[in-house]
Specification:
6-stranded antiparallel β-barrel, 4-stranded antiparallel sheet, alpha+beta, 6 helices, 3 domains, 24 strands
């Protein structure tokens, strides 16, 4: 084997068997949001009609009755003092998200949710409903046929409900009537908000932008914000700047953290979790109780004798896993997982062990319990 082939073989072997880099690079587009480029939440109150007897009970839901009367009066129908017994109307809350830079006349999807005691919104039609923003202004108007994914069927003695029949969606069900004024191209200062705040990541994003522009135009303001001064060549064309900047590759830095969900037994560990030298022992205590009652019969022809049930209880205690494992100093995440798995424990016991190691001060990571 020549020296060139031998060197190539060693390079391939080191690439395969040695651990890789600390992390993978991600686009700035996936790490941060641009200030001002955001959605806005809308909400409205309306009526769904055309239900097949599955609407609100008007005698029990006063706001549905009042809304129905007010709507009919606006249409020239006077029903004041009349008894309304229809079961085909339901009061609903309508929610939607107004996209960034949405223009007047475009359509957005909406979600319709029952507010009263309606059983199902299947087959219903939402009447004209204004959707308001946080400032109280109307930004969209919703109307259309409600489509639900659940259903309900019932008889005299049984019923079945699949999904949630009181929540539905209307695709392109709202028409935008008002735009949010925000001229991105006229901005001279921009701010990028990191989705996972971190000092190191913010510094790396600023450095990547400055290297691309060739001038100190970006600086980290805090762990979650990077400020950008729009360079002169990009004045009046900020979209071009953001298009080029958001494609830059940056390796994000993550703090050492262990996330535990005790309800489901899920454990997620970050790659930088390290453990000092510590010994861990885990034992499962199993207590078994068995009942074998016996029947005691009286002697034949005995007077006053009765049959009695005599309880017999057997209790056994067994302790398994009496092993002590040593976790060496500064082990990696893979070594830590392998060491815990070697004890033959499940996720529930592993949660208790990790919390005990943290209490002993031997684990360099934050533990977050969900």
């Amino acid at each position: 084997m020549t020296k060139t082939l031998r060197a190539a073989f060693l390079a391939v072997a080191m690439a395969v068997f040695l651990p890789g880099g600390a992390g993978a690079a991600s686009r700035i587009k996936d790490l941060a949001n641009i200030e001002g480029v955001r959605q806005n939440q809308l909400i409205g109150y309306g009526l769904v009609v055309g239900l097949n007897g599955t609407g609100d009970t008007l005698n029990n839901i006063p706001f549905t009755k009042q809304s129905l009367q007010a709507m009919l009066e606006r249409l020239g129908v006077n029903v004041r003092g009349q008894t309304l017994r229809t079961g085909n109307v339901a009061a609903v809350m309508v929610t939607a998200n107004l996209p960034a830079f949405a223009t007047q006349g475009t359509r957005i999807d909406i979600t319709v949710s029952a507010l009263g005691d309606s059983k199902s919104l299947q087959g219903g039609t939402l009447l004209v409903t204004p959707l308001l923003g946080a400032d109280g202004n109307v930004y969209a108007v919703a109307q259309g046929s409600v489509a639900i994914s659940g259903f309900q069927a019932e008889g005299e003695a049984a019923k079945i409900v699949r999904g949630v029949p009181t929540v539905g969606r209307i695709s392109n069900g709202a028409l935008i009537e008002r735009e949010i004024e925000f001229n991105l191209n006229r901005q001279s200062q921009l701010r990028m908000a990191l989705r996972n705040p971190d000092f190191t990541t913010a510094k790396r994003i600023a450095a990547a932008i400055n290297d691309f522009i060739g001038a100190p135009t970006a600086e980290p303001l805090d762990p979650s914000t990077v400020g950008i001064t729009v360079p002169v060549p990009y004045r009046g064309n900020v979209v071009k700047l953001l298009t080029e900047v958001e494609q830059l590759q940056v390796e994000p830095d993550l703090s050492a953290k262990i996330v535990i969900d005790e309800r489901s037994g899920v454990i997620v560990m970050g790659r930088d979790v390290r453990v000092s030298m510590v010994a861990v022992a885990q034992g499962n205590l199993t207590v078994s109780i068995s009942e074998t009652p016996q029947v005691s019969q009286p002697q034949p022809f005995s007077r006053g004798g009765t049959t009695q049930v005599v309880p017999r209880t057997r209790i056994g205690v067994q302790e398994d896993g009496k092993r002590l494992a040593v976790v060496k100093d500064g082990v990696s995440l893979q070594q830590l997982v392998d060491g815990l798995n070697a004890l033959g424990i499940g996720p529930r016991d592993m949660i208790a062990i990790l919390q005990a190691i943290k209490a002993a001060g031997a684990i360099q990571a934050d533990i977050e319990v969900m």
